[in-house]
Amino acid sequence: MANGSGGGGGGGGVRMSNNINANNLNTDSSSSPVNVPKMDALIIPVTMEVPCDSRGQRMWWAFLASSMVTFFGGLFIILLWRTLKYLWTVCCHCGVKNKEAQKINGGGDTQADGTCKPTDEKEENVAAEVGWMTSVKDWAGVMISAQTLTGRVLVVLVFALSIGALVIYFIDSSNPIESCQNFYKDFTLQIDMAFNVFFLLYFGLRFIAANDKLWFWLEVNSVVDFFTVPPVFVSVYLNRSWLGLRFLRALRLIQFSEILQFLNILKTSNSIKLVNLCSIFISTWLTAAGFIHLVENSGDPWENFQNNQPLTYWECVYLLMVTMSTVGYGDVYAKTTLGRLFMVFFILGGLAMFASYVPEIIELIGNRKKYGGSYSAVSGRKHIVVCGHITLESVSNFLKDFLHKDRDDVNVEIVFLHNISPNLELEALFKRHFTQVEFYQGSVLNPHDLARVKIESADACLILANKYCADPDAEDASNIMRVISIKNYHPKIRIITQMLQYHNKAHLLNIPSWNWKEGDDAICLAELKLGFIAQSCLAPGLSTMLANLFSMRSFIKIEEDTWQKYYLEGVANEMYTEYLSSAFVGLSFPAVCELVFAKLKLLMIAIEYKSEKRESSILINPGNHVKIQEGTLGFFIASDAKEVKRAFFYCKACHDDITDPKRIKKCGCKRLEDEQPSTLSPKKKQRNGGMRNSPNSSPKLMRHDPLLIPGNEQIDNMDANVKKYDSTGMFHWCPAKDIEKVILTRSEAAMTVLSGHVVVCIFGDVKSALIGLRNLVMPLRASNFHYHELKHIVFVGSLEYLRREWETLHNFPKVSILPGTPLSRADLRAVNINLCDMCVILSANQNNIDDASLQDKECILASLNIKSMQFDDSIGVLQANSQGFTPPGMDRSSPDNSPVHGLLRQPSITTGANIPIITELAKPGKLLPLVSISQEKNSGTHILMITELVNDSNVQFLDQDDDDDPDTELYLTQPFACGTAFAVSVLDSLMSATYFNDNILTLIRTLVTGGATPELEALIAEENALRGGYSTPQTLANRDRCRVAQLALYDGPFADLGDGGCYGDLFCKALKTYNMLCFGIYRLRDAHLSTPSQCTKRYVITNPPYEFELVPTDLIFCLMQFDHNAGQSRASLSHSSHSSYSSSKKSSSVHSIPSTANRPNRTKTRDSREKQNATRMNRMGQEKKWFTDEPDNAYPRNIQIKPMSTHMANQINQYKSTSSLIPPIREVEDEC
């Protein structure tokens, strides 16, 4: 009997002494089972139920022999076949050579007729044979490849069964290494047998498909089959099981990455590499552990298996890990010689693998995208995708406005998609809003990433632009590509994108699925930014008011009576939309507007009106001829979305006698709540069926029909052959002018008296990005101004830069260029900056500087330079930097506007237009008590300026006398509240405002662009320039649209309300009498002080309450109707431009001083002018009736001009004496 040690890995028994006779096993034949535990280390357990070797002889060699015979036998056969084949080939090659030699000598195989014998039959047989073998081989190759569905299923099934066989090995490893088993009763053996039969069939397929049988035989997978499949059949035959080399099945894990690629699970190189490294490491680890488990539980054969030790498989796994990591605790170690020898070599390879694989695995896991998952949509909750320029600043500004509490419950989840992982600050921001914000790393240009964020089910996709990039055109191109990618993936998705340059908007029209009717919008930052600044030239402070209206601001309550208190009360107002109650149906817009303001405490500025053709149009402050229809949508200014609901809930029967607007709630008698729900509240996305009826614009602005307005002689007597407007009739137009004709040298500008003009200081050079000055000029050339009301525009800057911009400006009248620099005081004095209505400071070099704090250095230096300038008072009445207030409608160049009691006129009192209201002259009793004018009126601090900033924090440098904290938000700073600073960052709020209500963008764009139409945008996209058009009734009708104006309260029809009156009374009077809709106040900063102040700064108050008290120095923001007869009245008031100051500051006329050659005639001209001035004053004193051709409700007809007081006459005489010092001024009309 051979002595041996049983592999008691699971439960080692007590070793028996060598002198025990095997016959003792049968001494007690009557006992059922043999006492196995005492012989576990030496013999195989045996029972009567499992027939096995009664002597306990180990048969491990039989299992191993089956594998070795199979491997080496097959290898021998392959080598023998190759040898025979080689010898056969050599023999055949020699025979062929002999036959060829015979053919050469004997002429070859010929037939009787001398022709060659046919060999086609032989070749066909060979081809048929090769074809049959190839077909079988190809069939086997297809079966085992992953190129077909059958092949993929087979490959995956083989891998899954291999893992199953490995699991069975893990289960059997708890049993002895070798034990007797009955195949019919052992369930795991039966399963393992079935698996191995399948592996045998698969091995056959692989063998048939193999091109090189020898290399196939030596493959790892083949070796695994050799040492795992045959032992199973031996186990069935011998009724015993040997754990043996079944651990080699762990090597199949190496193919795990291939299987995942077949299933299209692994797609990226990093993921494939990571799975490869992990699978190789784990399979090597498990395989080595299996070998240690085998030899340590079996012992060394030359030691008669006496030096074995019981170790479980998982203890061996632990041993291999601590060995690879070079830790080696020593609690588990190898005792057998085979085990130790294996460990010596394994340490060399395992340590190298551990040192290289583990760090690389950790690196790949660390570099794995933390935000690489997929979005899971929540039922009943919408989500939007935000992409583009994702930074801490852009995201924080967006979330602050989008998730503002005034929007009520925003049930929208925000999904950010960006290809760069967020930094720590941005990550912290996402975590603070984790309930509504998710971030995923990826690109919208990748369809896979779009699928991850569920773009097909998203409510909208918002694309943010980098406003501070060095190349705006490149940034726009990137965003356009994002739009193309998103639309290509899902054409129906709604997209709202930011664009930097106006001319790039045309490229969006080239995208077939871009549809304005479905809510797609492009927010052009340059168009809106310069439009806001242009409107500030017409109504100072308007840019601040509009910016605050579409931005969500929280109400900050201040108890002290300071200017911040009233400013912040207005800042809390936003723009909302809501359907009007049926109680308003049939009423005119002014009547509804007055009722809503007085009773509901809401301000309605516009409505969505449906014409007879069911076309939707937005009407801003329409006249009495517009009646409210059923289901009309109103545009409101309010502090909360809940307040706007009053307009929908209002019921005349139930709420007519209610004085508290908070009590106006839904009543039982209303009929429209269920029929027409308010779907346009700001907390919901606004979608109106048929709202957008043009290919690339929002709802158009409806004009009044000018043919229905009496006395419209301008249209009736038009000259159809004269092109004064562009082809759409929306803007003043002139033939293209060469830039050389509008260039003024410094000497020429110094000899030209400019007054009431707009000075644009522009920093830029030949390399600077274009900012699109056309968007600044277009609102100033809107056709709802008469030609004489247009302000002359003078650009001061680099000629090289302005040449690049001139192509878009050469069709606008009254534009001049002074080559120079805004930092030169000589250039500024040459353009009479102290007489301008507004000075605009822009820079095209802001985005080329890395340091954010230095981006605005040029604009800040120019602003401080102008404020520090000093001007003398030799111009007299033409000086434009004081605090006086010209009564609306008066000719500012006339003696009527001369200094009265030390109060000189201010440049921009009536908003961009001379409101045709004739008011009484100022009397000594109506002087302004709170404004003290001193010699400081000659300094540059009184020049109206608006400065564009890139970095919000730089606003602290504009005003040296304010107390703004550097960390104060922009909207809370004094320069922004006063309308003297504007930053493009305030436009970020338009993204969320447009998403919730796309009509807001339409309204804002209509107000600030001067009325750009879809036709005009399409024309500019084609020709990049305005096209002149003939004056037809259709184009001239486009002039009849509202414009923003500023109304002075110091004198005129509203003078009685300006001194302590209520704002609500002024609102109702202006609306009833003149159809002017008031919506804000531009008040002196120190107007609340009881002591006189020399400060001329003003701040904006948006939508004051009804009982708000007015002061005489207030300027009122209002929406006024277009006056068709202002030009004719103008002509009647100033008929001689050569004898008097016939042009007001609003006309922006250019005055030129004659040369010295005309000095002999100067005295005569002066005398003539004085006579005409005196005649004109007498005529104005006798005038009783004005504008008799206007409608009754348009403007006042009979305004009495009171006689001049003695002091007034003295002022006029002072004007005459002053005018004698001024050279004759000749009005130079524009060439157009």
UniProtKB/TrEMBL annotation:
Bias (Low complexity) ranges:
1130-1155
Sequence ranges of Basic and acidic residues compositional bias: 1164-1173
Q: Where in the cell is it found?
A: Cell membrane
Q: Which Pfam families match?
A: BK_channel_a, Ion_trans, Slo-like_RCK, Slowpoke_C
Transmembrane residues, as ranges? Answer: 59-81, 153-171, 191-209, 274-295, 311-329, 341-359
Per the record, the similarity remark reads: Belongs to the potassium channel family. Calcium-activated (TC 1.A.1.3) subfamily. KCa1.1/KCNMA1 sub-subfamily.
What's the protein here called?
A: Calcium-activated potassium channel subunit alpha-1
What are its GO cellular component terms?
monoatomic ion channel complex; postsynaptic membrane
User: Is Chloroplast included in the keywords of this UniProt record?
Assistant: no
Report the residue ranges that make up the RCK N-terminal domain in this protein: 381-523, 755-899
PROSITE patterns per UniProt: RCK_N
Would I find Cell membrane among this entry's keywords? yes
- Reaction(s) the record says it catalyses: K(+)(in) = K(+)(out)
Q: Which GO terms describe its molecular function?
A: large conductance calcium-activated potassium channel activity; metal ion binding
Q: How does it sit in the membrane?
A: Multi-pass membrane protein
The primary location reported for this protein is membrane
Q: Region entry Disordered: which residue ranges?
A: 675-703, 1130-1197
Keyword line: Calcium, Cell membrane, Ion channel, Ion transport, Magnesium, Membrane, Metal-binding, Potassium, Potassium channel, Potassium transport, Transmembrane, Transmembrane helix, Transport, Voltage-gated channel
* Name of the encoding gene: KCNMA1
